[in-house]
Amino acid sequence: MKYLYKFSAFCLKTLFKEFKWFVIFLMVLISSTASAQTKYFTGESNDIDGNGTADFDIAYSDFSYYGSDYFMYMYMGTFSPQDELQIQFGTQTVGVYSLVEFNNFGDTIGTSRQWSSEPKTIYFYENTNYVENWQDESFAFIGIRIKNGDLFRYGWLRITTTFDCHVLDGAIQETAGIPILAGEGINTIKPLDMKVSDLRNNGNWSDISVDFFSPYFNSYVEEFRVFAVKADDAQNLSVEDFMALPESRYLVVENEEVEYNVVLNSVFLDVDGDKMDITEEYRICVVSVSDSVEIFPHGFSLSPVFQINTVLPEVSTLTAEDFGDEGTSEDLKVTFAKNTREDMMKEYRLLIVPKDSAKFFTLEKAIQIPEEYSFGVEPVGDSVYSVENKLLKDIFGNPVHQDQLYQVFILSVPDGVNSNIASLSSVSNTFSLGTPDYLYAGQKEGIGINYYDFEPDLEEDTIRFDFDQDGKSELVFTNYSNWKPSVIFDYWEVTTEDSTQIIITDNDIATNLSLHSSINHLGNWGSGTFYLNFEYSAGWGPATKKGEFLYEGIVGFRKNSVNDTIYGWIHVHCQYPTKIYDYAWQKRVTQSVIKIPDSGENLFVAYPNPNRDRVLNIAIKNFGGEKDSFLDVFNSSGIKMKRIVVTEQLSQINLNGMPGGLYYVQLVTPEKQETQKILVQ
């Protein structure tokens, strides 16, 4: 009985060619009789009886298995009847799963079958050795029935047996108690299950992919024609309107498959002869061109409404670095490589995000940031863009400042004509702003900062740090963990050596520094042996100098010498397993490194002058730490290039990035002011 309609039509067309009108009469009569008894539908809805309640649900999954001599790919779906619907099932099982029974075209679906309102498994698999329950036409018919009083209305669903296992079409008897044939009621050759996907970002029709299934009676289809129509016009067009259009308005697809995937091309035009417009909404129409309109007229299907989404590419190689010493965003230099479609862009926007917020920052949030809280960069065709010497705000409108870790994003803004969707770059490296007078707990980047990841072996009892590589340890960390004999809780013992101190509290215990706190300018320093643990009750742990470290924390340290001072921090974990996460240190030049020239009658002296190494030392005569004192550097045109706040008698100005030439250094205190010339070579 398989292919009964198809085979009958073929025989009639072939054997009774001379009786064409008689053949047409018979086919129309059969079609009319079927349509009077059955209700045919496509798979857009799972409300078969039209009562507003879903009649079934299909959950889909697939699996692959490999063996030494076979490959098996399995599709599995669970068909769950709902409302008053029942599903036909057979005797086959897979493990504990009872299987839905498949029907061939023309099989009778009625009272003689087994029925259930319980979920049943739709199951197909194939391997190199055998095929079971496998449909070579990519679909199968399953029987259904719906309660109608004391009787049932019988029907069928045609489902896909590949990929996502869903309903293509179906039919149900209008009269209860009458059996139905699998496939009965199909009276059209229109394409089925059409889907439209947006594949690329070319800004033309080559972005669009159209998927559809051929109709069951595809032997009557001469070819398929694919059209694009503006959504507002789609409902007003008939199949005759589409058939009358010239060849330049559609794409021809040969009738050779059951499933089709068609990608449109860049020169494709819509039915009005217009090119793609990203501001317009469209629908795709696929027409099945019949080779026997007397039996099956031309059929067509319309896709849901869609709009072409042209997404801008992202920028790449985004970096943010602190190159200055003023402690403001003017020290910051951000570089990034352009995206590849600047012809679709309006601008780039530089967004500075506190690190704690960066992990949750998305494109949707970036689009909502007010323009005044970002920095715009015009796309001018440069391969690499650089933003520097700018006073910037973060995404919350706050000035970028020293006591914070930041990351940068670049938002590519579309022009709204060639592209309509923005893109957000990957996040930059983490940075913070620093000056030669400050090092912050947790700071990993900046001028002269040496940063290291560190995770010692748990079996290593003692870890020695020699920061200046003079062969002497500055800090000795001894590991005590409760997996060791006689240790009943975890802690680190820290001993200072070689003129090294750590930051302590007024009670002489090690201070657990908060992230971003300044190490250079904290008050209490101490040397000796300290314990990084928690203030437990009496009788626990070492008897003296308990720490304030519950689980983890940051230790600040410094080493003083004749020529310089090393400042640094160490991030530790004090519970099992005790470990050191990372650490960083920075060497600070002291006044005794270089002999300060005599300033004579001047308020200060700037040296070396001329300057070749781009580091300028400033020694101030009789400086008493006056507040509101600062140094400015101006170029020969009078433009301010640098400003640093003065807190000590000896300061340094980093001249990196400044071209050679004549500059002016100005010292301003609450009581005096003086300007001197310097030459940068």
Question: Radius of gyration, Cα only, in angstroms?
Answer: 39 Å
Secondary structure category: mainly beta
Helix count from the secondary structure assignment? 6
Task: Report how far the terminal alpha carbons are from each other.
Answer: 96 Å
- When the domains are counted, the total is 6
As residue ranges, the low-confidence spans are: 1-36, 68-72, 126-136, 536-545, 590-596
The main sheet comes to: 8 strands, antiparallel
Mean of pLDDT: 79
- The number of distinct β-strands equals 45
Strand content: 35-45%
- Tell the overall outline: elongated
Helix content: under 10%
Which terms summarize this structure?
681 residues; mainly beta; Immunoglobulin-like; 6 domains; 8-stranded antiparallel sheet; 6-stranded antiparallel sheet; 6 helices; 7% helix; elongated; disordered N terminus
Topology:
Layout: H1 4-15, H2 20-37, E1 38-42, E2 56-66, E3 71-81, E4 85-94, E5 97-100, E6 102-103, E7 108-109, E8 114-116, E9 120-127, E10 131-132, E11 139-148, E12 151-160, E13 167-173, E14 180-181, E15 192-198, E16 208-213, E17 221-230, H3 231-234, H4 239-243, E18 251-254, E19 259-263, E20 282-290, E21 299-302, E22 316-322, E23 332-337, E24 345-354, H5 355-358, H6 363-368, E25 375-377, E26 384-388, E27 406-414, E28 423-424, E29 449-453, E30 462-465, E31 475-480, E32 491-496, E33 500-503, E34 525-526, E35 529-532, E36 552-560, E37 564-573, E38 579-589, E39 604-607, E40 615-620, E41 630-635, E42 640-645, E43 650-654, E44 661-668, E45 673-680
Antiparallel strand pairs: 1-13, 2-3, 3-9, 4-5, 4-8, 4-11, 6-11, 7-14, 9-10, 11-12, 12-13, 15-16, 16-19, 17-18, 17-20, 20-21, 22-23, 23-26, 24-25, 24-27, 27-28, 29-38, 30-31, 31-32, 32-35, 33-34, 33-36, 36-37, 37-38, 39-40, 40-43, 41-42, 41-44, 44-45
